[in-house]
Design brief:
The chain is of the alpha+beta class. It has a single domain, classed as Hotdog Thioesterase (Thiol Ester Dehydrase, Chain A), CATH 3.10.129. Helix content is 18%, strand content 42%. It has a six-stranded antiparallel β-sheet, with helices on one face.
């Protein structure tokens, strides 16, 4: 199941310049999501990180993974679109392996490791081509807004 940007905008409250997902290319309810982020030189963070050697900040790679995880959680929670939010509660075992630069395409893979009433535990990995660039465990919690 693929989601285009219009569908992504229905689930995530994020907007430019903080929306870091361009497309969902795989989705399996309560199990897995794979998304893409096209990294371009036009990203506002490249103005200062770093002007002569642009590198995507690691925290934004993890944010992109968290946004993909948020879509996995929200779509799996079986609530009306726009009636719930998923909050990032923590990250563990985060590692950054290689720099991400303009022109790269991030493949964001997020797997549900544990789902319970207190939230979600997600395994997250980011790749550029076949190279692992970042990974970690994301803890998230969904809240209905009704």
């Amino acid at each position: 199941m693929m989601f285009d940007i219009k569908t992504i905008l229905e689930y995530l409250p994020h907007r430019y310049p903080f929306l870091l997902i361009d497309r969902v290319i795989e989705f399996e309810e309560k199990k897995r999501i794979v998304a893409r982020k096209n990294v371009t030189i036009n990203e506002p963070f490249f103005l200062g990180h770093f002007p002569d050697n642009p590198v995507m900040p690691g925290v934004l790679i993890m944010e992109a993974l968290a946004q993909a995880g948020g879509i996995l959680c929200l779509k799996s929670m079986n609530v009306k679109k726009g009636h719930a939010l998923v909050y990032l509660m923590g990250m563990d075992k985060v590692k950054f392996r290689k720099p991400v630069i303009p022109g790269d395409q991030l493949r964001l893979e997020v797997d549900a490791l544990k789902i319970h009433t207190g939230g979600w535990k997600l395994g997250a990995k980011a790749f550029v081509e076949s190279n692992l660039v970042a990974e970690g465990i994301i803890l998230a919690r969904g809240y209905n807004q009704e």
